[in-house]
């Protein structure tokens, strides 16, 4: 008998609340209604985010001689972030991802195993506690990061154009892109609002799917601990048999005490061993599906962090040039 759905847990509600608007949460898989606008946004998000990637590279090409090294590095990082967003935005459109999430919520979550014993219940509470705190911290960091990413350029623009009245001031953006015949500088308000929208999609998909991956990993670790506990606390035989050795060379040696399962204990041990094997199969099956879905995503994620860290270190090493 299964307990109530994990969808009622606080941290699942949190991640569902900010993944659902951009279409990252497959609500229809769990029998929830999803508006036509969100479904349309989910399908089209990879395409118009790809346009931002193209626009970012075109902006680099078109302004390569006018950009400073710091600006050049900033545009490369934001363009790579857009590429990461493109890959993440494809996930909700994949049936394999929907099946994995359904398997995680409906079958693999430790909540469905609490009826099997006290240690299952204990591990479920511990994993839920860790997941809850981690979700709240990640959510706060996501919104703070999104706010800080956009507030800097907005503050500088307002300060220099409204208060200081700076002449020949070039407007700043959080995300730079351009196309032949289109310059965002000609549409400051619209471009700024659209940049906030892009930042929202990027932060929710990056942090949201990373958080979802961590929640799955926490559950997997909980299953591994339970499996180890069951193997370490395997029942021992109640019957002890004394073996004596015959022959001259064994005459002065003591007998050997052996433990042996009786027929009833053999049946019980066979059942427990079968449960452990089945539990191990469940863990392996889920981790295989998890690796298949998130493996390519993490590979590109590592590439992004590698390039970004190298660029940032290079920019820091250059320092500020004196005029």
Automatic annotation (TrEMBL):
Bilayer topology term: Multi-pass membrane protein
InterPro entries, A to Z: 7tm6_olfct_rcpt
Superkingdom of the source species: Eukaryota
Sequence intervals crossing the membrane: 43-60, 72-91, 133-155, 175-198, 205-226, 293-314
Gene Ontology CC terms, in alphabetical order: plasma membrane
Main subcellular localisation: membrane
Keywords carried by this UniProt record: Cell membrane, Membrane, Olfaction, Receptor, Sensory transduction, Transducer, Transmembrane, Transmembrane helix
Pfam families to which the protein is assigned, alphabetical: 7tm_6 (PF02949)
Localization (cell): Cell membrane
One GO BP annotation of this record: signal transduction
Protein known as: Odorant receptor
Annotated organism of origin: Loxostege sticticalis
